[in-house]
Queue: 2 jobs
Job 1
Amino acid sequence: MTQVYITRLSKFLPNEPVPNDGIEGVLGKVSDKSSKAKALVLRNNGIKTRHYAFRNGKSTHTNAQLAANAVNGLFDEKIPVEKLQLLSASTASPDQLLPSHAAMVHGLIGKHSMEIVSVTGACCTGLQALKYAFLAIKADSAKMAAACGSEKNSTWLHASRFQAEADNLARLNEDPIIAFEKDFLRFMISDGAGAALLQDQPNDNEISLRIEWIEIKSFANEFATCMYAGAIKNEDGSLTGWNDLNTSDWADKSVFSLKQDTGLLRGNIISCGGEYLRELKEKYDLSPDKIDYFLPHMSSEYFKKEMELYLEKVGMKIPPDKWFYNLTKVGNIGSASPYVMLEALFNSGKLNKGDHILVMVPESSRFIYGYMYLAVV
């Protein structure tokens, strides 16, 4: 079958990077009080700077604009955008319910008609979008495709989105403090976009990344929902979606905010990925000596030590000098993170022909893991 190559990578990170002490200056303070969760979360996640498409209480970019900027960065006079046959776009934070995210991005970049597909979910959607493009070229359905991941989380995280809930708690004579499951994510996730150009031929005079395989597995049959938005979680672990709630609840319960069951996350996110990698190790005869660079998408450096121990447990101990990630500089950008991480390595000058790269992408919404194995050619 046709070989598939990543020939270009691009990113778009909006505005100047925001340091830790500037987060609430952009996202605001609920009830004008600094978050009690902030110091603990930032100490554990290791993030030093991140980007927001939000300033002075207003958006500077839509999600679609972030994605379009990243996709446009793939093209130039040598390869004009008019040659693009397929756009595969992913996000966890679309600007609207309809039209689809990919349609909005196409509307911004498109000078011509093309096939589009939207993938929605959380972090793993970026890899799912890339796999769709990979398979399309593999099946000779297209010769050139762009895959992208983008997030615009800052609007969801702004203090104004939680103020109604805080006010409602105060009216009920309760402590108007936003629950940790909502508050901690305000210091975990950020905005940005990344994109990859996939072709059926490698670059002539520059390196390319040949996609050897992409594997994705859902564990939703085993676990309850862990991260969610647009719903409330019931005591039995089920969700009640926004459309079955009273409109007054939407604000009073911060229904559209991102929420995460941190206990469920800590107990399962590492073991799911480790055991799945054990399967892939056997399937592809994979070993640490066949990996020159390991690119783990991590929501937080908090998980790094436990991840190292589990890799060793499944016979995949990867030396520290092979790890490559940029979480501390760009933050957790969800579906965009694997693209932005790979773009940094691809354009670093470190890669040599013959190198192999393993990309790992977990998703905690209801636990999905994706792995991608690349060869530098």
Job 2
Amino acid sequence: MMTTASAVRWAPATTTHRLDMPTSTGQVDVTVRERDRVQPFLLLHGGAGPASVAGFGDLLAARKHARVIMPNHPGFDGTPRPGALASITGLARLYAALLDRLDVWDVTVIGNSIGGWIAAELALLNNPRVSGAILINAVGIEVEGHPVTDISRLSPQQVVALSFHDPGRFAPDPGAAGPTPEMIRANMAALAAYGGGSMTDPTLLGRLGELDLPVEVIWGEADRIVTPDYGRAYAKAMPMARFTLMPGAGHLPQVEAPEELLGLIWDLGQA
């Protein structure tokens, strides 16, 4: 069982790593926030941006005594993105290089939405530093009858309605401080560059059968961006995967129900 929360707070360390990529991408700067204890986790955000995993990263560090590595995908939140870096597989290779630079081992990769897609591609690289993956409402595969909802033409209110079990708790506040319209446009441009219009790769589902790692697929029951049946297809495609449906959450369980999500991850790890 999980221990009670520690009263200690860890100040995040933020660094920028310049990584040499073995392709035409060349050098890439990656901004990384870390909460550093012992067990390493690579925590990958989705299209909602780095803020959508920051609070969960704090919780994971405090409760699991973990080293939590949270990169900004280049192009998000004002960070630079080389034009040649324009795919999820490119991001997976970038983060494999980051793990090499940080010299961490036995890493569990956790990803939400496109972060889950990146986690799957990183696992497929057979990087010896990665020991497991947790996909939370991931996109990336094509499932007949269960398309990924195209949010590019939706209003923020519509996206919230599709994303949460209880949308009223997360209604946009026009008076609250938040990202500028320019930053939102930049984030959406980066998301489109990485995921394309469909947020899927038609080859991914077949390639997942090659995975030789334990994978937990966790799905918010109320997700209307990618349905639970989409998640079940994801898990079914991987030989060592297990699917768990999470009530009281939608597309962003780490935002909507972080305590419950962490408890679930902890319980699955002990099973």
